[in-house]
Write a structure and sequence with these properties.
107 residues, three-stranded antiparallel β-sheet, 3 strands, elongated, 1 helix, 37% helix, alpha+beta
Length: 107
């Protein structure tokens, strides 16, 4: 493309400032959209969750996670361990569990 007219220094600085302001505005708009999306996902996730408070003395099962699973268990192994008895409840929904031999379950 051929340059047909010369742009003055002041006009060039003004156009650069305008372009910078527009890019900042686009960044802010993108940030607002990201935050709105994250809030929407959070609300949708919490809508699916059902709070359950276990009472002291209740029998519960514990889900087996990958790190505590036996090495050669295979895919047909049970996904749950237990039963465990709830001994005490923590403030954030956590519970202290003991097995049938009264051994406290490690955290």
């Amino acid at each position: 493309m051929l340059r047909t007219k010369e742009v003055g220094w002041d006009q060039n600085v003004a156009q650069l400032c305008l372009a910078q302001d527009q890019s900042e505005e686009r960044r802010w708009q993108a940030l607002i959209l990201i935050i709105a999306y994250q809030q929407h996902i959070k609300v949708a996730h919490h809508k699916k969750m059902k709070a359950h408070r276990f009472q002291v003395g209740e029998l519960v099962l514990k889900r087996v996670i990958q790190s505590t699973k036996e090495k050669n268990a295979g895919k047909l192994r049970s996904n749950w361990e237990g039963p465990y008895t709830v001994v005490s409840r923590g403030g954030t929904g956590s519970c202290t569990l003991v097995d049938q031999e009264q051994k406290t379950l490690g955290k």
